[in-house]
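Reviewer 2 asked us to include a model.

Predict the structure of this chain.
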Amino acid sequence: MTPAPAMPVALEIAVTSPAGAIVARDAGADRVEICVGLELGGLTPSQALVEATHETGIPAHALVRCRPGGFEYDADELALMEHEVRTVLRSGAAGVVVGALRPDRSLDEDILRRFVDAARSVAAHAEVTLHRAVDHAADPVATAARLADLGITRVLTSGGAASAPVGAATIARMVDAAGPVQVMAGAGVTPADVPRLLETGVAAVHLSAKRSVTGGHAGVSMGSGDDGSGHTVTDAAVVAAARAALDR
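Predicted model (structure tokens):
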């Protein structure tokens, strides 16, 4: 019997605007993750931002994370994020990106089930991605093995390391453990890293492909994380280089 051809590896770009989604789309991305506060690890985008990104035509998966910091959530935060899951899907998101841990750094499966149920109550085929909370888990490989039973579509991971290239060996083990759940490598990824990550067997590669834009402000700070230097945008050349590396 002739073996089935390997599925192409998808390219996902993290963006913070509809303009970024258009750049990613036109440079060859397969989908985007839409969020705000990328410098904080990403936070839930507004309803209008999700709607506008949906209108660009590229599949957009919305991050649902109500605050920066750790991944243990109280009842009020959980209720808010369940509401956000439903809202972003009703606003046109193709899927949601979620995660939660217990104090012992194990996956909070009860919360994950609630997120999955909330997503599928809006769209039966909504995709659910476990975000990089998995990299803060005590055992990312064992966590990956549990995801299929929870109804998770894919997991974004650096293999528990500071960057996906550094964690490549663990990512390969996660691919073996995850079964039908797609494993997507992300964190600190550049186009030059793509060949090494492909060797792990991942289903997708994720990067922010961003560049800094001048035009900040001087003087009074707008907050503790504001140095007045400007902001970042999606770089078409980086997206295109990542696409080319995947297609070689």
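The chain is about 35% helix and 15% strand. Residues 1-5 have pLDDT under 50 and may be disordered. We have added this to the supplementary material.
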